[in-house]
Write a sequence for this structure.
């Protein structure tokens, strides 16, 4: 085991070949050309084996009721797996806290030589020695002070494998068209478990978890659409962010880490410690460069490995049927109800194919503007626009509710100065 001057564990040192790969620019892709590099060169795994193994177990071996109590700096050191399956939900935080406190006490007992005859403490001491830890009070106190839980996500990862089928092929094609490696399409397994409507507490949105500040220069975000929720538009944006990261930082391990930590932060780390991500992980000190950022690249490698051979970890997995669609561009402003009627599709189908449309659109409070691209199932077909003949008892409010529109949209489409003055038999244009 190798420690840096702060007593923190390196993942491992690279071989000369590994260092050469990390130190040279690997960002340019020329389709069919000599500069196109293989995945092992783009995404080296050497030196990350321990972290990949750890995250593979988190993603596949342990479920939501299991917590790995581990050391965040040396992922070989998983002290125990704590199951909360039989613990009441309200009691779980206290239960987990007590388990951590017990492990902290055991480590301190080992450090001060008061382990006594406990077989569990003796086993822990032997494990530390097998991992080449020199058992001293200072070391065990450090280990005791940085205990961390990692919850298993087997169920969530498996569900993500199923969901990924809908857009995975299109996402790979989009990444290739943007000139970046297609295997980056595995990154949403880490970001969102391929939940296309994912929203984080920090404000990140969509399968690629784009923040509004990052996304606005690349996608539309307004009351009508939020293209962070469009898997294709969001993939284009993510590809451009990752490509810019790689051009600035020189290799894909740093570029992927920057997707989590930020390009400027990784540039500062690179300026201090060079192009080797392992060295940065072992030595770079920044409050923002925590466990998530340090492990982001290794999580990607683990997710890619699993997703390439899901049956090895989950048995038979049946991905969702790939989405196939055609696009139409609205020639004029229209309501979501009129689009559904014109193209003979339900609102639910429209929502499935256009997840980026805003809630005010679905509520009928906003019309879709002319020039907007709408996606439809390939089998859908248009029918002529239809008006509505005002019947006895109709009001503009009841008509608007019938078509899922706002009163204002129908009023504007028909030039009605007074929404309360309707004539029996009057023909209204339903936009």
């Amino acid at each position: 085991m190798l420690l840096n001057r702060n007593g923190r564990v390196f993942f491992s040192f690279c071989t000369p070949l590994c260092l050469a790969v990390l130190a040279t620019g690997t960002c340019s892709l020329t389709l069919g050309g000599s500069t196109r590099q293989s995945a092992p060169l783009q995404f080296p795994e050497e030196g990350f084996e321990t972290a990949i193994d750890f995250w593979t177990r988190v993603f596949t071996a342990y479920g939501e009721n299991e917590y790995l109590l581990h050391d965040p700096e040396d992922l070989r050191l998983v002290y125990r797996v704590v199951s909360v399956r039989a613990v009441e939900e309200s009691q779980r935080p206290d239960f987990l806290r007590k388990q951590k406190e017990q492990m902290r006490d055991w480590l301190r007992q080992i450090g001060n030589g008061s382990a006594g005859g406990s077989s569990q403490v003796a086993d822990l001491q032997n494990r530390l020695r097998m991992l080449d830890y020199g058992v001293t009070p200072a070391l065990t106190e450090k280990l005791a002070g940085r205990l961390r839980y990692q919850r298993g996500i087997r169920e969530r990862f498996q569900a993500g494998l199923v969901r990924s089928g809908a857009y995975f092929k299109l996402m790979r094609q989009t990444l290739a068209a943007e000139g970046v490696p297609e295997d980056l399409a595995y990154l949403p397994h880490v970001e969102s478990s391929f939940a296309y409507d994912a929203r984080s507490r920090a404000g990140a949105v969509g399968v690629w978890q784009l923040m509004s500040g990052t996304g606005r220069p690349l996608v539309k975000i307004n009351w009508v659409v939020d293209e962070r929720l469009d898997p294709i538009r969001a993939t284009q944006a993510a590809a451009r962010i990752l490509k810019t990261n790689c051009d600035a930082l020189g290799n894909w391990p740093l570029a992927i880490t920057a997707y989590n930590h930020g390009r400027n932060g990784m540039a500062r780390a690179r300026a201090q410690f060079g192009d080797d991500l392992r060295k940065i992980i072992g030595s770079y000190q920044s409050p923002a460069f925590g466990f998530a950022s340090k492990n982001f690249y290794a999580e990607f490698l683990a997710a890619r490995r699993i997703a390439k051979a899901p049956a090895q970890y989950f048995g038979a997995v049946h991905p969702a049927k790939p989405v196939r669609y055609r696009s139409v561009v609205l020639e004029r402003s229209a309501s979501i109800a009129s689009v559904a009627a014109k193209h003979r599709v339900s609102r639910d189908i429209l929502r499935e194919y256009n997840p980026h449309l805003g809630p005010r659109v679905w509520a009928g409070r906003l019309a879709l503007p002319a020039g907007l691209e709408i996606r439809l199932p390939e089998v859908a077909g248009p029918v002529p626009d239809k008006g509505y003949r005002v019947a006895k008892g109709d009001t503009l409010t009841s008509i608007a509710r019938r078509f899922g529109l706002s009163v204002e949209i129908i009023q504007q489409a028909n030039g009605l100065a007074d929404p309360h003055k309707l004539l029996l038999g009057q023909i209204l244009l339903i936009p």
Summary: Strands lie at 66-70, 78-83, 148-151, 325-329, 373-377, 387-389, 427-429. The mean pLDDT is 87.
